[in-house]
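Contributing new records

If you add data, match the layout below exactly. Sequence lines come first and carry their own label; structure lines follow with theirs. Keep one chain per record. Anything else will be rejected by the validation script.
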Amino acid sequence: MTELATPLPSLAEENLRLQPLLAAITLEPPECDCITAVMLKILDGKCKMPPHEKVTMEALYRATKHLPGHHLGDDYHTFITPFLECDRSQIAEEKIMAIYEQRVLAETQISRPVMKKFKGRMRSEGVLPKKDKSTSEDD
């Protein structure tokens, strides 16, 4: 018997799920930078997270973009905002390249250990699902 695929949660459903979790934790500015960088990676199509985790990360970005980052600020949010409301399959190639360039710039400002610690915390806090030991590393 074939297992049915679990439908992806909507952004609204993830937002509702995240509200009590986010109310219980304090995100530090470097973690806000990580959220912004992951959103850029989702937008440029290079994120290797499973689809349901991408929905979670987008909901997390939308819920926290007002919080201050350590290195990544309002200029990044102003850049990202138009892409949140459009059909992503219709984003022109030159816009994808601009997103890619912003993402690479953002990632140069976040050390790998900071990103790993952030993703680990999001898993331990229940924002993201815990990883199975046999599963490959996060994106």
